[in-house]
Fold:
Amino acid sequence: MHDEPLDPFAGDPVDPTFVVDAVSEHSTALNPSERQDVLDDLADLEAFESLLSPRRIRGLVVDCEDCKVPHYFAWDLLRSNLKQLLEAGCSRVHEPAFNPDPNDYVSWEYARGYADGTQDALEE
Ligand SMILES: [Zn+2]
Structure:
């Protein structure tokens, strides 16, 4: 005998718990001002590298909010992180330089101060 009970909802095409709006609003894309911030950072980075790499500075040191320790990033990695941020809306790259020499890296603030000082010197 094959007396399986009939399922009255078998083949029902609509699952009423399916919610369509889950994909609508939650894009990771940057808003225009965030995007501009990243573009500004990229421009700063270009300026810092051209000023500082001739002085044997290999990149920037960034205090990581997740790890609570400074990370040392070479120029190329900083640039690719920022470009990823522009394209993907997030940057989770965590590949700080291996066994860095802290003397080879400066903070973002130091680099900005150096760039500003150089700019002032040029204008005088
Ligand atoms: Zn970290």
The chain has three helices and three strands. Confidence is low (pLDDT under 50) at residues 18-26.
